[in-house]
Task: structure prediction
Amino acid sequence: MTVQLSIIAAVAENGVIGNDGDMPWKLSTDLKRFKAITTGKPVIMGRKTFASIGRPLPNRVNVVLTRARDFAAPGTVIVPTLDAAVAAAADTGAAEAMVIGGGEIYGAFMDRADRLYITHVDAAPAGDAHFPAIDPAVWEVVSTEAVPAGASDTAATRFTIYQRRRG
Result:
């Protein structure tokens, strides 16, 4: 069975997605959206992203991609390659798998992804993890929604869904 690969990320104006293993903002509104979009679907992440979360995300098959042969994390599926991650996600029978980070993993999956769920964050923080450039020749905007900063958010955002152009 083929699984659609989608990437979901919060990305600052300067491309930053993380700093020192953490997100450089607090966006409760976006975390609720992340949970709504990913619940019930397999999530694919790198070892560092898993470590920053600290536990498997509930109600999702957690696929952790790592080259570390001795890595163990109860409640997850550990895989060594991109192909193995896609196969593990497809084995769940889900129609869509969500790639949730980090920077290296996003870069590796950009050529394989069918859809991007991007929260554009109205901020430009310092950071050591970046999202790859979204090439408008490759990605078409399907929808976009401005989201003002809520009481528990440190920035306003714009939620945009991109679809890979065909042909």
Summary: Residues 85 and 97 are 10 Å apart (CA to CA). The longest strand covers residues 4-12.
